[in-house]
Amino acid sequence: MRTIVVALVSGLIISACGVGASERANVLPQSSSTDPSTCPVTVPPRPGFVPPDHYPPELATGVWYGTPELWTSLPPDGAVWDVPVQPDGGVANKTLWWSENFSTAEGEDFSGNDDITIRAVHLDGTAPKVVQKGGVPSFNRFTKNFLLVPLGLPEPGCWEVTVSYQGADLSYVLQAKG
Asked: Is there a contact between 66 and 54 (Cβ–Cβ < 8 Å)?
């Protein structure tokens, strides 16, 4: 049963996050929103990040990705959203984030502790920068406390996403298909 629940939770965890700035490539390759094959999506290393004690060391359908200060799960083959395009031309999805700064107790009080910011920049510069602040405190008995942060992008394409939480900055490249 635990495996099924962890699989379901990790299946909900959609592409996001990345590695610390010291682990990022110095220069991201140029890409085009019109050619998805040129988007340098972030593919998690194998084995993935191992979170602190009290968190599952691995997931059934994703790979932990990040640092103790901030992590998420990525699909094993890379950060790709295949979601419907909204009537306004944008795409949106949920991102889920964990930190060693969260407790593992159910019902943690996140007041003053949900100061998470997501910034997204279209790699070919054709869309406005996106900034999303704050998250929804959430809990799962296997993955403990996490912040759910919705991310809406004004158009499909190749996006560099940087997430900031309590002094930790993590980046990844996401291909948003429509």
From this structure: no
